[in-house]
Amino acid sequence: MPEIHSLPLIEQFFPELSDLQKSRLGALPELYKEWNAKINVISRKDIDHIEAHHILHSLGIAKFTRFPTGVEILDIGTGGGFPGIPLAILFPEAHFTLVDGTGKKIKVVQAVSDAVGLENVTAIHTRAEDLPSDICHFIVSRGALPMPDLYRFGQKLIHKRSQNKGAMPNGIIALKGGDLREELLPFKRIVSSESLEDLFPGLDFFKEKKVIYLPV
Prior knowledge:
Layout: H1 8-13, H2 19-36, H3 50-58, H4 60-64, E1 72-76, H5 84-90, E2 95-100, H6 103-115, E3 121-125, E4 138-142, H7 147-157, E5 171-177, H8 181-184, E6 192-195, H9 196-199, E7 209-215
Parallel strand pairs: 1-2, 1-4, 2-3, 4-5
Antiparallel strand pairs: 5-7, 6-7
C-alpha cells in the first residue's frame, strides 16, 4: 500500500467510513501524484487539490444515493478513474466497470485499483458505443458527455429490470457544472438534481455543481 494521507474533508462529510475505506481513500493522492508525473490524467495545477476537486467531487454521488449489493455500475469516460474508483471504495458490494477510449488512462485506472486492493473494479479500454447491451443498472459520469449522449447510450446499456428494489429505478447519475438548462431541456419532466453546494456546504469549489439523475 502506498503512503496514506489524512483526508479531513472526506472524513468530515463521510464520518461512517471504515478503517479500510479511510486507508484506500487516503492512498489515492500519492498514487495519482506518482502516475500523473508519467501520464497526465489530472491537470498539473489541480493535482494538489485532489481531495476536494476529484475524490470528494466523485463522492457527491454517494451523498445523493446508496448502491446496494449486486448493483452493476458503468463509469463512462472515467479518465483516471473518477468517479468510479472513489465510489468503488465506498460501495465494495457493488461492481464497477470503468471505461475510457484512451488506453493510457485505463492503465492508470488499473494500476490505482490494484494498488489499493479493489476487487470490485473492472477497467476496460473501449468506447461506450462498442459495449454490449444490458450490462449495468446505473451509468455514472463526471462531465464526460452531454446528458443526451449518456441517455442514448443508456437505452442500450442499462438493464430494464431494476436491481435497486424499493429505491430509485435504473438510470444515469452524472456530475455536472455550469448552466445546464439547454442540455437538460429534453428531460425537464423526468430529471431530478441536487446541488453539491448543499451536500458539501462551505466549499466554494462546488458552487454551480450538481448531481443529475435521469431514469432510463
